[in-house]
Every structure is written in structure tokens, then in C-alpha cells.
């Protein structure tokens, strides 16, 4: 508790200091300096999810480096400005103000977390700066309060509605499930949203929900819920939570003799997922490094060459790295296609364009959200492997 | 120092409601118990095997709480301190066993020295040695905490020691959450032995084979449940023996009853207090290891809720009473499991702490507690 307070105080100091700086700077809109195009990357390098930030930074800077090796864009060199936005609204807003007013960028990649991307999108649209977030799944990132699309903001990932739909479709068609049991954490919007969308599409398609049980994120003992699942005998159990809960539930389910497969969303994607416990389960994700597609293979190879882990082995890019890489590539490709270093034209090009990305072939719908296949990943024999791509 | 706001010997607050209002509370309690009986009865009739499964999961929880609650109750009995850092000692026990098993594969040490030993014996000896090391670390930790944080405050107002205890608790949680200590992640726990589960149905006991589902009316249980139950009961018996039959036990009771007189009788009071902390910590460490084995995920905040619920169990049983802590813990486990099973899962913590409030209002001394006769 106390640690948070100290942290909060520090944040206030940082805020005051950075709020002073842009006030003195002239209004945005000035031309970028001579032979370079600047792109800001807002990544949560500190704060609650630092691994998300590191992956994002690495994915985005890899894309920039590859373009520069090919001679940049429009004959100009691309300069990446990385700012720590902490997955928190205030630091993210300060970082956005800094890069727009001081560094005069016209393009922002990020933030990662929806709650930070939303306030950044307000500034970006006011200042007419193109923003593309790799991983913010909340619909409010691209829609304003009135439900209208924000003209300068894009995301490179599917939203939770699509994900829930794909989980339902996969359960129906690939697992051949007729009955499902839903486990959800009522206090987590992400989990709740996915569960609701799943239920909507699963029942619309003729499936039956045989039971629905809630738990809290602090629970460690799921035996009573599992006893009810054992009684209900569903064809599939839906558990759209993060990997830590998944580890606990699936391990305890095995001990109760529950054989129905567990299925979830991109929250399962973590190096900490216990593949032995979750064996037989499936989850939807943005991409899989084991997919046999040329674009994916080149990306995994280049990423591994550019970044090493503590042991000096090549790193395997996770979904966050892949989406940041995609977001940056879409942005630069759009600048190249627009033929002009102009934010309005670039935004227009992204909205109308078609892009070949690591996470699939992308076109954008009217809400600046990609229409692309969702990857389903299977947990089998202690490994997490690509299973199929499902078009929503 | 003596002029602090809270006086050490302030008269006990009268917690009994005024006579004219007492019947409202009584009627409420009677209605509540009737409702509970009705809820349990209908559910038992509806699905006996589900009911039995839920009772078993409640028992498992209850036996773990019992091991933690003993530490609360003993420390309170002797120094009148609610040791809020106790739940975090429990967490440390789980982490020590995690490092021994996952990093050093320590549970296999007998196989290195005695290659001919049958694997079953290796696992048993290995697991017991993991548990013993975790208990030793917890004992060292608890005695250090006692020496550093509580002993200097022994003659200060009781509230000062209580606040220190909360401080120590936060310290352990957030220090443990540093990346170079335990890290704040949820870590999947590697068990030192494999879980074997069985189910009982009409035709007897069968073991559960992976990939097949037991029949609908089966009651399932695992070797972990049996281990937790047996260990918890043994701990209880051991403590009864320790307190009633040994010299140290007599000293503990004497210190609990009257510290200055005990000191005059030649009892080393400080040593007895340290010993009490050590015993409580050893069982918290044991409970931590068994809890981690049972639920197989650990993180630095894992001690908070079990710790608080064990505290409620100790109050329910009558704080200061060892059999009380045991019975209170079993009741807490059932209350929680039945709430999860027949009301709703998120309600379980609310019910657990509602029990604390009801006990404090109706019978502050708990089930086994005797009305406090003020001494000194």
C-alpha cells in the first residue's frame, strides 16, 4: 500500500515537471526536421506489465530498423522515439503531449493497455496525429462517447467481441460441443466481456449453457465449482481468464477427473502457462510463432537474431511483439503508399488499405478495427502449438 | 510513553446489547440458522454426492486453516498479540519449498545417496525433508521477527505491537514481491510428488485414470486431502501433548496466566515467548507447503486471505484455546465451501468475515473461550 503512495507522489512530481514543458512550446503542426520521419512508440516499460512494454518496444523498433535497412520511407530515415507510458493514463498522456509538442511527431504507435490508449487517442485526434495501437482490445479506443469512429486512431488487433465469437465457433465446429459450462471472474471486465460474447454466439448457434459459475481473482480453491462441472458434464468448459487462474483451475480439474476441454482467450498467452495442466485445452490468440507461414517464419527468425534472452538464446516473439511489429509496419507502409508525410492522408490510406501482416492479412472495418482471421492455439503434450485460423 | 491515548488496562467494553433490544438479535440469529438448515437440507436431498464433494473440499480447507490458526491462538494466548505477520510466514514456507523442489530438485536427494532405495520411499523421505527445511526457515524468520519487531515493544501499549505486526506483514509481502526476492508473479508450483485421486461410488473405491470421467454420483478425493487431514490431526495431538504434558507446556501456561509471577517462579519468560512464536511458525510453514501442494500456485500475497480466515477461525473457536482453533478452522472451512457450493463463490469471503462480526457481537470469547477474568 505504502509503496503505491510513494509511487503516486513520484508520479505527481513527474507530471508537474512534464506539464510545464509543453506549455512553453509552440502549438503542434510544424514540419518534421529535414530528412527524417519521426515515429513515437509509447510502451509500458515500467508499471504493472513491464514484459508487455519490452515486447512492444522490441517489435516496433525491429520494424523501424528493417525499413531503414531498406532505405527508409519516402527517401527519409525513420527515427523511433520510445517513451515509457506505464500502462497508466497520466504518464501516457504526458508522454503523448511530449512527443507531439516537443518532438513534433505525426505518428504514434501505442499504448498497449486500453485504459492508457483511450486518453492518448483523445489527444491524437485533437492534434491530428495518427495513432495505431497494437493490442488495445477495448472498443472505446477507436470509438468516441457517441459511438462514432475516431478518425486518427487505429488498432492492429481484433476486439473481444470477435474473440468471443471465434471461441464459440471453434467450440461448435472443431470440438463439436453442444453444451458448455462458463467460469468467470465477475470483477474483471475482460473476462466478463469474453464470457458474455461467447454465450451470445454459442446460444445463438443452438448451443446450451449448462452452468455458469463465478469466482474471484484471489481464489485458489476451485473444488466446489469443479464439483459442479463434474456433475453437469459439459462438452466444453469456457475459462476466458489470465494464465495464472487457468493454471490453477485446469490442474485441479484433472484431479477431479474432468475430461471436458478448457477453452479461453488471449489471456492464456504467457510463458508462465502450465502446459501440462492445461493439456487438451485451446485458446484464441493474435498469432502463433509456430504457424507455418512465410511472414511469420521470417519475423520469428529476424526477431530471434535481433534480441536474445538472459541465456543468450534467440527470443521467441510473443503476441505483443508481433502486434507492435504489425502496427508499426502498417503505419510505415501507409506513409509509403500515401506518398506524402501528411497525417490526414496517412490515416485515410490505413483505413482503405490492405496489409499483409504477421498476424494475418488485414483490412480495416468502419471502426478502424482489423478484419482478420483469429489464431486458435492448442495445448497438447506439454507444448503450445498452432491449431488453426478461424475467420470470425 | 505512559500518557498514550490507549491505556493498557482500560476496562473491557460492554459488548452485550441492552436487554430491551436483545430479543431482536436473538430472533435474527434463530431465523438465520433456520435458513441455513433449510438451505443445507434441500441441497443435501437434491444431490447427495455433490453435497459430499463440497463437504470434503471444505474439510481440506479447514484442516489447512487449523494449522495456521494454531499459531494465532498460541501467540495470542501468551503475549496477547494478534500476529498479523503469521499469514506471511505461511507464504514464506510455501516459497521455500518451491525453491527446494523446483530449483534444486531437493525431494530426490535420497536417490542420490542411496540409489537402491525404492522410489516410493525416496518420495516420502524427500518430501518430508523439504517440509522440515521449510519449517526451519519459518522458525528462524518468526523468531527474528519476534526479536526485532515485537520484543522491544513488550511493555508498550498493546496497540503499538499490533500496528508493528501489520507493518511486518506488509514488509514481508512487498519485500517478497521484489523481482530479486520472490517476484510478484503467480508461479505454478511444482509438486514434489504426483497427485493420485480416487472416487467412491456404489461399488467401492476406484482410482481416477487420466482421460476418463468418473460416474455422475461419485465422490472424489486425493492423496493430498488424506495427507493434509492426517498431518493436521497429528499437529493437534502433538500440541495437546506439548501443552499438557511437558515442562515447556507448563511454562507456557504459566506465562499465559501471569507473566510477572511466572518470572518470579524462575521461568525464562522471553524464552517461552520465543518458543511459542517458533512453534506457531513451524506449523504455519508446514501448512504453507501443504497448501501450495494442494492448490499448486504461489504468489507473495497468498498468505493474506488464509491468514485472515485462520484468524477468524481462532476467534470463533475462542482465541487462546488450542482445541478451539481446530474446531473453529473446520467450521470456517465448511462455511466457505458450503457458501461457494450453494450460494455463490464471491460471497465466501463476505460470509467468512460476517462470522467474525457475529461471533464478536454474540459471544466475543468464542466457542471454547472462557469469560475473561481480569487479572493484574
From TrEMBL, chain A:
The entry's keywords: Amino-acid transport, Signal, Transport
GO biological process, one term: amino acid transport
Pfam families: Peripla_BP_6
Keyword ATP-binding found: no
InterPro entries cross-referenced by the UniProt entry: BCAA_transport, Leu-bd, Leu_Ile_Val-bd, Peripla_BP_I
Leucine-binding protein domain residues: 36-382
CDD domains: PBP1_ABC_LivK_ligand_binding-like (cd06347)
Claim: Signal is one of the keywords in the record: yes
Signal peptide bounds: 1-23
Stated family: Belongs to the leucine-binding protein family.
Designated name of the protein: Branched-chain amino acid ABC transporter substrate-binding protein
Organism per entry: Leptolinea tardivitalis
Amino acid at each position: 500500500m505504502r509503496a503505491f503512495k510513494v509511487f503516486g507522489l513520484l508520479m505527481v512530481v513527474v507530471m508537474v515537471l512534464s506539464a510545464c514543458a509543453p506549455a512553453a512550446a509552440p502549438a503542434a503542426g510544424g514540419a518534421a526536421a529535414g530528412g527524417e520521419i519521426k515515429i513515437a512508440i509509447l510502451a509500458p516499460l515500467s508499471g504493472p506489465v513491464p514484459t508487455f512494454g519490452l515486447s512492444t518496444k522490441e517489435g516496433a523498433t525491429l520494424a523501424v530498423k528493417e525499413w531503414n535497412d531498406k532505405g527508409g520511407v519516402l527517401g527519409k530515415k525513420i527515427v523511433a522515439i520510445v517513451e515509457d507510458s506505464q500502462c497508466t493514463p497520466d504518464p501516457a498522456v504526458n508522454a503523448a503531449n511530449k512527443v507531439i509538442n516537443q518532438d513534433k511527431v505525426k505518428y504514434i504507435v501505442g499504448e498497449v493497455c486500453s485504459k492508457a490508449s483511450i486518453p492518448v487517442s483523445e489527444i491524437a485526434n485533437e492534434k491530428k496525429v495518427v495513432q495505431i495501437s497494437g493490442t488495445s482490445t477495448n472498443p472505446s479506443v477507436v470509438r468516441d462517447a457517441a459511438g462514432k469512429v475516431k478518425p486518427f486512431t487505429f488498432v492492429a488487433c481484433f476486439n473481444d467481441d470477435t474473440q468471443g465469437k471465434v471461441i464459440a465457433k471453434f467450440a461448435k465446429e472443431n470440438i463439436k460441443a453442444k453444451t458448455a459450462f462458463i467460469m468467470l471472474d465477475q470483477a474483471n471486465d475482460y473476462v466478463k466481456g469474453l464470457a458474455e460474447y461467447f454465450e451470445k454466439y454459442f446460444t445463438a448457434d443452438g448451443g446450451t449453457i449448462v452452468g455458469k459459475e463465478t469466482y474471484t481473482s484471489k481464489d485458489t480453491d476451485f473444488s466446489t465449482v469443479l464439483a459442479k462441472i463434474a456433475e453437469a458434464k459439459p462438452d466444453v468448459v469456457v475459462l476466458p481468464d489470465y494464465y495464472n487462474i487457468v493454471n490453477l483451475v485446469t490442474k485441479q480439474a484433472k484431479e477431479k477427473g474432468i475430461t471436458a476441454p478448457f477453452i479461453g482467450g488471449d489471456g492464456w498467452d504467457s510463458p508462465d502457462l502450465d502446459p501440462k495442466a492445461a493439456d487438451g485445452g485451446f485458446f484464441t490468440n493474435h498469432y502463433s510463432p509456430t504457424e507455418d507461414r512465410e511472414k511469420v517464419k521470417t519475423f520469428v527468425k529476424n526477431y530471434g537474431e535481433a534480441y536474445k534472452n538472459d541465456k543468450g538464446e534467440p527470443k521467441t516473439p510473443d503476441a505483443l511483439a508481433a502486434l507492435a511489429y504489425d502496427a508499426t509496419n502498417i503505419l510505415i507502409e501507409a506513409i509509403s503508399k500515401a506518398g506524402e508525410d501528411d497525417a490526414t492522408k496517412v490515416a485515410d490510406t490505413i483505413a482503405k488499405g490492405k496489409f499483409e501482416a504477421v498476424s494475418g492479412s488485414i483490412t480495416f472495418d468502419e471502426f478502424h478495427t482489423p478484419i482478420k482471421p483469429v489464431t486458435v492455439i492448442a495445448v497438447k503434450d506439454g507444448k503450445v502449438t498452432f491449431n488453426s485460423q478461424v475467420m470470425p | 510513553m505512559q500518557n498514550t491515548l490507549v491505556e493498557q488496562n482500560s476496562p473491557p467494553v460492554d459488548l452485550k446489547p441492552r436487554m430491551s433490544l436483545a430479543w431482536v438479535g436473538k430472533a435474527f440469529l434463530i431465523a438465520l440458522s433456520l435458513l441455513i438448515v433449510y438451505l443445507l437440507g434441500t441441497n443435501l436431498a437434491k444431490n447427495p454426492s455433490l453435497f459430499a464433494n463440497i463437504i470434503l473440499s471444505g474439510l481440506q480447507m479447514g484442516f489447512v486453516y487449523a494449522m495456521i490458526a494454531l499459531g494465532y491462538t498460541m501467540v495470542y494466548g501468551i503475549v496477547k498479540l494478534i500476529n498479523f505477520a503469521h499469514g506471511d510466514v505461511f507464504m514464506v514456507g510455501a516459497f521455500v519449498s518451491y525453491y527446494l523442489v523446483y530449483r534444486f530438485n531437493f525431494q530426490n536427494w535420497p536417490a542420490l545417496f542411496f540409489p537402491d532405495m525404492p522410489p516410493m520411499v525416496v518420495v516420502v523421505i524427500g518430501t518430508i525433508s523439504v517440509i522440515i527445511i521449510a519449517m526451519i526457515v519459518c522458525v528462524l524468520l518468526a523468531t527474528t521477527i519476534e526479536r526485532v519487531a515485537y520484543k522491544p515493544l513488550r511493555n508498550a501499549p498493546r496497540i503499538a505491537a499490533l500496528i508493528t505486526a501489520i507493518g511486518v506483514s506488509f514488509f514481508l509481502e512487498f519485500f517478497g514481491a521484489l523481482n530479486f526476492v520472490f517476484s510478484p508473479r503467480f508461479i505454478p508450483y511444482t509438486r514434489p510428488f504426483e497427485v493420485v485421486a480416487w472416487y467412491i461410488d456404489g461399488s467401492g473405491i476406484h482410482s481416477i485414470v487420466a482421460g476418463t470421467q468418473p460416474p455422475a454420483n461419485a465422490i472424489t478425493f486425493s492423496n493430498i486431502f488424506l495427507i493434509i487431514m492426517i498431518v493436521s490431526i497429528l499437529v493437534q495431538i502433538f500440541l495437546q501433548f506439548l501443552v499438557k504434558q511437558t515442562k515447556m507446556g507448563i511454562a507456557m501456561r504459566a506465562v499465559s496466566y501471569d507473566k510477572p509471577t511466572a518470572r518470579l517462579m524462575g521461568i525464562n519468560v522471553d524464552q517461552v515467548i520465543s518458543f511459542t512464536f517458533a512453534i506457531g511458525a513451524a506449523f504455519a510453514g508446514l501448512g504453507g507447503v501443504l497448501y501450495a501442494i494442494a492448490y499448486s500456485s504461489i504468489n507473495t500475497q497468498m498468505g493474506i486471505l488464509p491468514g485472515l480466515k485462520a484468524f477468524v477461525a481462532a476467534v470463533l473457536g475462542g482465541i487462546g484455546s488450542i482445541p478451539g482453533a481446530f474446531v473453529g478452522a473446520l467450521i470456517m472451512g465448511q462455511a466457505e465451501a458450503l457458501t461457494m457450493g450453494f450460494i455463490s463463490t464471491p460471497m465466501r469471503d463476505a460470509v467468512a468475515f460476517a462470522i467474525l462480526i457475529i461471533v464478536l457481537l454474540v459471544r466475543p470469547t468464542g466457542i471454547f473461550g472462557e469469560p475473561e477474568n481480569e487479572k493484574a
